[in-house]
Amino acid sequence: MDDYGAAAVLILAIVFTIALSWVYGTMRLGRDIKAMLGDVVSLYWKVLWKVVTPLLILVSWWTNLAKLDTFSLESKWSLSP
Q: Residue 78 domain-assigned?
């Protein structure tokens, strides 16, 4: 049952990551961080936010789906012989 919860969390993570990096934008996020902290965000972090992180989450989600068994309400433990 934990695998089903992990799949839902990974879906939420990929939606959040895509919304933050592609919809809101890494340039705008970088300006916001510069306004808050005073430091310029390097290209390294922008590439991680926009490309690497969504791909890693998708790969993790796909491997989770590949090993997922079908859900069954039958108990693996039985009291009858």
A: no
What is the model's pTM?
Answer: 0.68
Q: Which residues contact 24 (CB under 8 A, 6 or more apart)?
A: none
Look at the chain and report how many structural domains it folds into. 1
The residue segments making up the domain with residue 24 are 2-65
Look at the block and give the residue holding tokens 């090993």.
67
Give me the count of residues in the chain. Answer: 81
Tens place of pLDDT for every residue, the chain, 81 residues?
A: 466 677 788 889 999 999 999 999 999 999 999 999 999 999 999 999 999 999 999 998 888 777 766 666 666 665 655
The Cα–Cα gap between 51 and 70 comes to 31
